[in-house]
## 1
Amino acid sequence: MDIKLLKKIKDDTLKRVGNKFDKDYRTNKEKEVRIVLKNSYVIDKDSIDEYIARDGYFALNKAITEMKPEEVTEVVKDSGLKGRSGGGFPTGLKWGFIPKEKGQKYIICNADEGESAATIDGVLMRQDPHSVLEGMALAGYAIGASKGYIYLRYEYPVCLEVLNKAIEDAKEKGLLGKKILGTDFDFEVEVFRGAGAYVCGEESAIINSIEGNRGNSKSKPPFPAVKGLFSKPTLINNVETLSVVPQIILNGADWYKSTGIPGSEGSKVFTLTGHLNSPKTVEVPLGITIRELIELGGGMRDNRKFKAFVTGSPNVTMLGSEDIDLPVAFPEFKERQVMVGSGGVVILDDKTCMVDFTHFNVDLLNIESCGRCTPCRVGTKRAAQLLEKIKEGSASLKDLDKLIELAEHLRTASLCGLGQAVGMTMHTAMNSFKDEFLAHINEHECAAGKCFK
Ligand SMILES: Cc1cc2nc3c(=O)[nH]c(=O)nc-3n(C[C@H](O)[C@H](O)[C@H](O)COP(=O)(O)O)c2cc1C
Ligand code: SF4
């Protein structure tokens, strides 16, 4: 395979498919964009030729024939792309942390997608698997890695089939494997099925899991960039993050930055769920407001009042109705101590009891806690018990103080993000809905009529 053949496949396929690619499933063309989801629901997921016809693998060709590895990292840095797994860590900066020395290095594509309500990575892998593979190969070229793993959520058997076929097709065409596109660049990809626990999506737990150990988190440092998989430098990025890299390399950093707002460049895919008229998956520019997202989801169900906007994993950060015009953007959310999350959004109406909702999420994380560190193992259980007490009507204001203190301990002393998320859940719930907690304790009043039964 070389660029001439790539162009020929593109031209032949475009002739064959006619106007198939003109299809546009967006319901609101003014508010929604198509960058990450450019190919999803448009191309045949099993056809590498249709991916090539949409400029697939042209970015990889450009990078490995015209650019130095560090130039690829520079373009990603300039684009402003931030990790789409939730925390918003700058992607190019992370790539730059990998030591420059030659030697075995790894790419891990985090496809564990454990966040409740999020279905974005699954859609991308099922609908557009080659964009993920091309993104991984570009990352591999940039950091000098010749092997990549896709750590795939155990519950995604269809993705497993689609990805394995895509890998075989790419290898057959010389777009993965040895001497890619006739150059000296080698890059192999292997799909590794996850272990089925939420904590296994945490980067150090993934490393343990692929190494054949129990999927527990490790303390950091050392960070994976320095000592990762099999003790080698390892770059870990989310599916959505990697899948957009080919378009950034092909079209340039300025093109990517023309969507979104400064500090939150580009687009994000969200799965809008909860008390909406039309729950759906949408791709929007970052910087869109919560109000606009609710409108894209068809507005509040039964014309009820909007109460809470919940993001993160599982449902960890909450904002109330006073924040309805807040832009969904990394710095703005960080300032309010909430996460953009990996894309699962839950919209709640005024019939929801936030004490009950917080208890549900803390209890879920209590079940998922791996038990390795004391703050999370003991603290999460204790937090669930205190919330249960508030729901039953047997809690005092002292219990609320204990809960606030516990949230702080969990946020600051837990070994990994799971325990920190429990702290964050309670912290943001009490930030935005403290009156509701007080009404439960002082008045035994639950506006939603859920508690004290
Ligand atoms: C408990 C826990 C679960 C996680 N699960 C996922 C996951 O399913 N998918 C994911 O991409 N990141 C997950 N992460 C974040 C990863 O550790 C890592 O930061 C991420 O893959 C980096 O990707 P990004 O830089 O592209 O955002 C999880 C973190 C924690 C603490
Ligand atoms: S924070 Fe929880 S999940 Fe993470 S290591 Fe500690 S016990 Fe395990």
## 2
Amino acid sequence: MKNKRGKTPSLITASSGRPEKSQAKKLRNCTRCKEAIVKGTDCFLIPKKSGGFTSKKSFCNECFREILEQSKKDLGLFEELLLETEGS
Ligand SMILES: [Zn+2]
């Protein structure tokens, strides 16, 4: 019988935390493209650990989409590796 493993960690949430959707409380700039995120518009916050504390980076919708696409590609790679392992 397998040991109880508890809650399954996720690659997305394990390291620094879960991205969240938010509304800009003041004028911000996207961390990636530096475009202005006007107060009150939707943006995405991605926690990033640096030093001893976690800061949240703001991203515009467009950049968050690209980050999401890249994450999917990365996940796909790992999925292939896993399949290779299982298939051998
Ligand atoms: Zn952006």
## 3
Amino acid sequence: MPDDHSYAQTSQSTPGRNTPEQSELPDSTDKDPSGMPTYAVELEGLTKVYQAAGNAEEKRALSSVDLKIPRGSIFGLLGPNGAGKSTLINILAGLVNKTSGSAKIWGHDIVDEMRPARMSIGVVPQELNFDPFFTPLELLELQAGLYGVPKSERRSEEILDVMGLTDKAKTYTRSLSGGMKRRLMVGKAMVHNPPVLVLDEPTAGVDIELRQQLWAYVRELNKRGTTILLTTHYLEEAEELCDEIAIINHGQVIACDTTQALLARIESKTLTLTLGEDLDSLPGSFTAFHVEQKSARELTFTYKSDDGQLAEILKAAHVAGLSILDLTTDQGDLEDIFLQLTRGAHNATA
Ligand SMILES: Nc1ncnc2c1ncn2[C@@H]1O[C@H](COP(=O)(O)OP(=O)(O)OP(=O)(O)O)[C@@H](O)[C@H]1O
Ligand SMILES: [Mg+2]
């Protein structure tokens, strides 16, 4: 990852227009003693119905979504294709009009206080959206101009440096690689130094190394106080990166919790025993358990994580006189929870 340090220093000496410290807030009870909002984003009953057009029928993409995204968090928005994630993000970005409900960004209502709300957020959209005949430097300058950032406060070169694009600053963006274009998109969302950064599938189609770099950078930004909202289909990534996660399906929030609490919902775990000698048949003491013999020397138990069965399994193995060479447990992961919840909701609506 490029050296972020210079960026941190410079951005402190020339603060952007909407650093968390600077942003003016309306009178609201949702402020903590620092004067900053408790929630970076607050949605209440947010609903979006896309009108019927041509052959396409009316589509309810979001249905009364309530969501509070704590200031300073990395918040993950997960859900299957078509769940409504981009719709939600595009409403925050001002690209899609909501049908009803309300949304606040950094304490500002997106309709009544559109300008400060827009200035408080930077959005990296799912689709690449820049003119291939501009250079990265020109694009950043143009974007800063759109946001009304005065020349003296612009940080285009610094952002290019952070994004590792300095040597491409003056080449046509069409000649950048896909991963470089993604980084430029992130840079573009940051020109006005917003306290909230939204990333819609930023690492789709990006190689593993670059993905790691991007996430390291997201973490770094977050450490410096930026609240991050991201959507991703890489559940492993969400599990590793996000403090809180909302799962959305058919336009509704079906789970919203800390990543830890979500993982604690996993009901069953597996235990695999590797034995020192071949086992012809299962010992009688194992009949009480859900067990499968995978090979002559391998047994896999599935057990409920919360009722002390693990100790009983080990006791039974001991009683049966088995020599155990190795033992592994699989806790399950976010993917299990995701499938459990989205399948459940699908069945419920079917
Ligand atoms: N401009 C539009 N006009 C009509 N319907 C739309 C429009 N944009 C999205 N939709 C519909 O709204 C629903 C939600 O779409 P959205 O793009 O928000 O999903 P998503 O969760 O971002 O999916 P993905 O994971 O594939 O990016 C889908 O059924 C989609 O077809
Ligand atoms: Mg999307």
